[in-house]
Amino acid sequence: MASALDGLGDIKRGELIKLGGISGTLVFAVLVQILFFSQGLQDYPQAYLSLFYIPMILASYYMPKYGPFQALIIGTIPFAVAYGLYTPGTDYAIFLLVWLIIFVVIGWMIAYLVMNSEQAREKLQEASQELEDNKDLLDTALWGAGLGVWEHDYRDGSDKVDARWRSLMGYDPKDDLPSDVFSVHVHPEFQQQYQTMESQLRAGDLDNSKLELKLYRKSGEEIWVRIYMTINRDRNGDVIKLVGVLEDITSFIVQQMAVVSANEKLNILSNITRHDILNEITAAQGYLGLLDLDGYILPDTKSYDYLKKVNDAIENIVRQMEFTRQYQDIGAKAPEWHNIPEKVKKMAVRAEFQDLEVNVDCPVEVLADPLFMNVFYNLLENTVRHGDEAKKVEVTYGHGQEEGVIVYQDDGPGIPDSVKGRIFERGYGRGTGYGLFVSKEILELTDIKIKEVGVEGKGARFEIAVPLANIRRL
Predict the structure, then answer these.
(1) Rounded to 5 degrees, what are φ and ψ at 230?
(2) Chain centroid offset of residue 63 CA
């Protein structure tokens, strides 16, 4: 309460000082005017009239809202003094009237400029406060997200880091930082990769970059991080600073490695188990064949029918085992870039597709699962198997707003509308029934979609929609 009253007292004292300054200069101007007239010097009005500008300027500056009104009041005082004490004459009255008009206009202009400057100052203060609030919000968000920020100034070699960066890298708040504070922590295995990325940013080949690498903390402990970097430039395009954001992903990488290791062990176990089962199945098929060859089971008997069903069941088991072999590899490795024209043309010359004419007009690479090209193998195999003498296949590319579309078109009989919705189901169709199902699963790992949009009687047409982020032109 006392501090509030003290503040109010400060305001009142400030207002009194302003009013005292205005009043004092005004009284001084009036006294000088009276002195001039008493000495008979009224022929030199500009000498004493100029003193009235001082209180007018002070009033317009401190109270700009009443600028013109204040200037009018102050400007009429010379009239009152001159004609209240003396009678200067008509010429003086005309001169004083012209002066008064100019005096009021100047007062209005000063008040207008002061008000505009105050509004600009208020807006600047609001913008400054908003910027400060946003900075606090950003700092809170970065801290909450576990992100540390650093910057390197190329002009003087200086470095700046925030508190979170210090915490992540093992520095106390008062610890001195090494020169080129980030690069000295990069693990030797990733130094070349980091330097290449930084060089590309400085050269303007990249606007920003993301990189996962290994760092040494101050204590020597190794951690995995994900960094985001960008370059600041001046108006001339010259490089000023590198700004980076660092995220500790050690726990994620450790979990990822554990999953990869577990998958590798499961795949080894699966391969061994599948190999042993197929060996036993081969032996069973061999014995069934011997039964048939030795004539122990006669045709057109129930025993022969049972034998055939057993053989069919074994063949189904073999197909399912083949499916598990394909399916276990989906998603086991990181996505990679696939050169579509090169790989499709290489696949088209295989013996099983030698009767097909395959034309490729698809000048792109696609980032997808390593098994991505199995999709085209399955499509070509379907054309051969179900295309009823289909002779021609075309693979083309079209560009949409949000995705690129790779089109596979053959000249076979096409797919009936009644079954279009089922061809990607597991086990549907002739043969193994897994080809298109596996293809769909492979594609969906990297958000790629496939659908059949052909017209029956005009060939099968598959459209593979790829996100633009997963496509680059050759």
Answers:
(1) -145, 165
(2) 50
- Domains of the chain, by residue range, sit at 2-137, 147-248, 254-327, 336-473
Asked whether 109 and 74 are in contact (CB, 8 A), the reply is: no
Query: How far apart are alpha carbons 133 and 128 in whole angstroms?
Result: 9
Please give the model's pTM, rounded to 2 decimal places.
Answer: 0.44
135: left (phi over 0), alpha (psi -120 to 50) or beta: alpha
C-alpha to C-alpha distance for 52 and 34, rounded to whole angstroms: 13
- Homologous superfamily assigned to 336-473: Histidine kinase-like ATPase, C-terminal domain (3.30.565.10)
CATH architecture of the domain covering 147-248: 2-Layer Sandwich (3.30)
CA dist 376 to 403, 406, 450, Å? 19, 11, 12
**Could you give the 3-state DSSP secondary structure of residue 442?**
helix
Could you state, in chain order, the average pLDDT of each consecutive group of 10 residues for the chain (474 residues)?
48 75 83 77 69 83 80 83 77 81 85 83 79 67 71 86 84 82 86 87 82 86 88 88 86 73 64 72 74 61 74 73 63 82 90 88 90 87 79 88 88 84 73 71 88 88 90 84
Q: What is the pLDDT of residue 25?
A: 84
- The Cβ of residue 93 has, within 10 Å, a number of other Cβ atoms equal to 14
The predicted pLDDT at position 10 comes to 55
Sequence-separated contacts (24+) of 389-393 with Cβ below 8 Å: 390/356, 390/459, 391/355, 391/356, 391/357, 392/356, 392/357, 392/358, 392/359, 393/348, 393/356, 393/357, 393/358, 393/359
Residue 131, amino acid? L
pLDDT of residue 338: 92
Q: How many other C-beta atoms can be found within 10 angstroms of the C-beta atom of residue 149? A: 18
